[in-house]
Amino acid sequence: MPAKGATVADWAVTERSGLAQIRAAAATRPGTTLGIGDDAAVLDLGDRALACVDLLIDGVHFRRSAGDMESVGHKAIAVNLSDIAAMGGEPVAALVALTLPHDGMGPDELGALYEGMEREAAAAGVSIAGGDMSAGPALALAVTLLGRLPAGARCLTRAGGRPGDLLFVTGPLGAAAAGLAIDEGRAPPSATPSAPALVRALRRPRARLAEGRALAAAGARAGIDISDGLALDAARLAAESGCAAQIDLERVPVADGVPEIAAALGRDPAEFAATGGEDYELLVALGPGEAGSVAGSAALELHRVGHLQRGEGCTVAREGVPVAIGSAGWEYP
Amino acid sequence: MPAKGATVADWAVTERSGLAQIRAAAATRPGTTLGIGDDAAVLDLGDRALACVDLLIDGVHFRRSAGDMESVGHKAIAVNLSDIAAMGGEPVAALVALTLPHDGMGPDELGALYEGMEREAAAAGVSIAGGDMSAGPALALAVTLLGRLPAGARCLTRAGGRPGDLLFVTGPLGAAAAGLAIDEGRAPPSATPSAPALVRALRRPRARLAEGRALAAAGARAGIDISDGLALDAARLAAESGCAAQIDLERVPVADGVPEIAAALGRDPAEFAATGGEDYELLVALGPGEAGSVAGSAALELHRVGHLQRGEGCTVAREGVPVAIGSAGWEYP
Question: What is the ipTM of this complex?
């Protein structure tokens, strides 16, 4: 589609060359019958297909001026893979709706963006199978991820939790929020030797696909990925399950380097970790019966962080005493 | 996700209330096992799922200032249904990634947008099954449509055409481009009594779903929907089929009212109709053997407009003589 102010011919060339560039780089992987180049992709998704979409917008979710387009591409795929992971599914294919800024984007920048997407897609066995491209006010990506539930597998929804279930996360929290504080210059990288790892956690998150499938198979009752912070995402899981959540701050696993960054920001480390977004660990509810055996499994790193109870909302407590936290929400630009 | 400059709490309320509003309005239709409210939608799409995405951006594809959000919603669904139609498929579910402008959007405006989407989705038996929402520089929609090929049905790709095939369209062309000229004040609505119908063709296109399925069943070899103009989309179909297209201007069916608008613009009506975009008729290639029986079928309105031949690109001819047209492309803002 043409940009306002650009001539039709100019834009058509941009769209054509951009699409040719992307198509040449996109491999077709199992489950994709027909990829880029037709009116729609043809996929093998079965009777329990999974479908989700996430937006990444310049100036809101990333800064193009940071000059790391490959990480933007990586993240655009990874955050969607995380949604498939949170259902216990396996990813198959992605569609990329790309808004290019009106002032254009060079082939190198577009190439880096797609390289980041293609690498992360390849690592998960996913084809980039289609998309759309348009000019617009700012660089933006809407990535749709299609997947499927493995035959016979349970679907890990948000709605299956019950009062009395225990809540677990799949790894330490706070790294991405700490990375953001460094990236934005709010905290000095000199505060911790973990600074590069924290920035990497922000820019190159990893979806917990194997963990999601294992937890679904192990009988987890409900699950969600932690994109907007443990406290807020626990509230969401609880709401869909028709109950309330309690998070015990003293149990929250805090990632390496986060205490130093939290200190530099004048924040409590556990509270910072419980409200920081974009870690993409999974939060799951396990019945008291399953909790012991699953949490003891050597194959899964699980940290108990709280429980579900009657009521609504999410209470954050320290040693059993509710505390007011800075925001229900999360650390985000 | 929070808007830059908005407080987390402000935006969280907006996202929550917006999602609640959308969820309340979204019906779950056959093929959708789990709709809005989880990490991913669960759908029954089978082993030949169809997936496509289209962007609609304020200032590029529509003008929010025109105050007709219901039509924007309608069109966001319809243009995607058209891609499913062009594959000979049946639509199942849509995901809506919605970028709200930083200065916000009232519940009435959001409601009208979703009413337009939900009505058009309902008419096609489609659930709005998920999505994402963020603040950004301008109102924008990325709608993903998921569908499936009916059991035993052929898939109508762009790639199946061969030299010697005849090209047909499913209805008269040029109405949407003429509607755009009226909408933008480039042509006077007084030029034709069909002006309201032309503007409606632009704002409320209809996807040719039944036609796509019938043409696939009738043995059409290749198909595409005409979104960017007959000449350009014929070139695309030909390129994917490894041959060239010729369009015969004297055969191009011209929609009512288009000759008057073309005259007001100083354009030849057939050329205007052959290059104007957004009509969403289907363009199909039929082998010479099938062409007679299919084109004679009372159930389908088919107009022969040209043929495929050896070579590449698209030649536009009048009475067999190639003519230079203003642009290979299309009428678009």
Answer: 0.90
Closest of B167, B331, B165 to residue B249, by C-alpha: B167
Closest by Cβ to B84, choosing from A40, A55, A131: A40
Cβ within 8 Å, pair A8-B38: no
- DSSP strands (E only) in B117-221: 127-136, 140-148, 166-169
CA dihedral B108, B109, B110, B115 (to 10 degrees): 80
In sequence order, the 6+-apart residues with CB closer than 8 A to the CB of A205 are A75, A78, A79, A82, A176, A278, A279, A280
**Shortest Cα distance, chain A CAs vs residue B307, angstroms:** 20
Q: How many other C-beta atoms can be found within 10 angstroms of the C-beta atom of residue B175? A: 28
Beta carbons of A55 and B97 less than 8 Å apart: yes
Q: Has this prediction a pTM greater than 0.95? A: no
CB-CB under 8 Å, A138 with B132? no
Whether the pLDDT of residue B284 is over 70: the answer is yes
Q: Is the pLDDT of residue A3 over 50?
A: no
Question: pLDDT tens across B107-155, in order?
Answer: 888 889 999 999 999 999 999 999 999 999 999 999 999 999 998 888 9
Other C-beta atoms closer than 10 Å to the C-beta of A319 total 8
* Residues of A with Cβ-Cβ distance to B53 under 8 angstroms: 95-97, 130-132, 142, 144
Interface test with B, best of A4, A22, A144, A314 (most B CBs within 10 A): A144
- CA-based nearest distance B98→chain A, Å: 8
